[in-house]
Design brief:
two-stranded antiparallel ribbon; 2 helices
């Protein structure tokens, strides 16, 4: 009705907004810069060559984006830069075998988004 405070249909503060609940740490995915302690890789198996890639003398780097989860599992692997003849698939298979200690935020294990590179070189 008028101008000012109150519950009328005029100008002024309206009803208070309900705050959105905080998402628990274990349900969030953090970027590297947002964690207190980064995930620690304990073992990162090498990605082997396929016979097809070796015969075709394919060399290069596969870049993956993935999540090192608070549960200690590797999740949501996505190929950013791939290679042919099964090398991208070999990198994905190797990434699934990574063992690590989860990142930490405020004393809680958390999931962290990372990029990994697997280099393929013929000698």
């Amino acid at each position: 009705m008028g101008i000012g405070t109150g519950t009328g249909g005029g100008i002024g503060p309206g009803p208070a907004l309900t705050p959105t609940p905080e998402v628990p740490y274990y349900e969030r995915v953090f970027n590297v810069k947002d964690v207190d302690k980064r995930a620690v890789i304990l073992s990162n198996p090498k990605a082997g060559y396929t016979e097809e890639a070796r015969q075709n003398k394919i060399q290069g780097t596969v870049v993956l984006r993935l999540i090192l989860s608070a549960k200690g599992t590797v999740e949501q692997i996505r190929v950013v830069t791939g290679l042919p003849y099964g090398l991208s698939e070999k990198a994905i298979a190797a990434a699934h075998q990574i063992k690590f200690q989860p990142a930490m935020k405020d004393g809680h294990p958390v999931s962290m988004r990372v990029a990994l590179e697997y280099s393929f070189n013929l000698y």
